[in-house]
Design brief:
The structure is a single chain. With 172 residues, the protein is mainly α. The protein has 3 domains: 83 residues, Four Helix Bundle (Hemerythrin (Met), subunit A) (Up-down Bundle); 30 residues; 48 residues, no CATH class. The chain is 84% helix and 0% strand. It is built from 9 helices and no strands. Helix 1 packs antiparallel against helix 2 and helix 2 packs antiparallel against helix 3. The radius of gyration is 20 Å and the shape is globular. The termini are far apart.
Length: 172
């Protein structure tokens, strides 16, 4: 049953991701992100990381999506529709997607997911159950990863301020 749920969530994530990328309307793209985030929360539940699943659904599918939709509504969508995709952007996007796919393939071929990986998983079962709990996650986040956490928060703040300034109409 666990494998069937994993495959179902994985297929749904890929499908909603394709809908996000292929949608012409930015509002529809943002709305397709909501079920995508819910499916990612489902994967966290399968990993027994219930706190992360709840945070994924509440914060990302809820609050962050409201902020995304607010920023999209600030943009001038008519001017964005008139823009065409440049050849440079298409080639760069395809090239970076291919590079990411290559890194993923190399990582999968060099990993030990065979019998030895199953034995390691059986030995580390107790520590894996603790990995999804709130207290170890909080300690790890605010001790070892405090600098990336703060950099990410500043980056998100700068991005929001930049979008608001770019979408602001000039007063005459």
């Amino acid at each position: 049953m666990h494998d069937i749920l994993f495959i179902t969530f994985a297929v749904l994530i890929v499908a909603f991701g394709a809908l996000v990328v292929s949608s012409k309307n930015p509002v529809n793209s943002a709305m397709f992100l909501v079920p995508l985030m819910i499916c990612v929360g489902g994967l966290f539940v399968l990993l027994e990381a219930y706190f992360l699943a709840a945070i994924q659904i509440l914060v990302y599918a809820g609050a962050v999506m409201v902020v995304f939709l607010f920023i999209i509504m600030l943009l001038d969508l008519k001017a964005e529709e008139k823009r065409s995709v440049s050849l440079f952007a298409a080639v760069t996007g395809i090239g970076s997607s291919g590079a990411i796919l290559g890194v993923l393939c190399v990582a999968l071929t060099q990993s030990d997911l065979g019998v030895a990986g199953q034995e390691k998983a059986a030995l580390a079962d107790a520590s894996a159950r603790q990995a999804g709990e709130t207290i170890p996650l909080g300690k790890l986040l605010f001790t070892d990863y405090v600098l990336p956490f703060e950099i990410l928060s500043i980056l998100l703040l700068v991005a929001m301020v930049g979008v608001i300034l770019l979408s602001k109409k000039k007063l005459q």
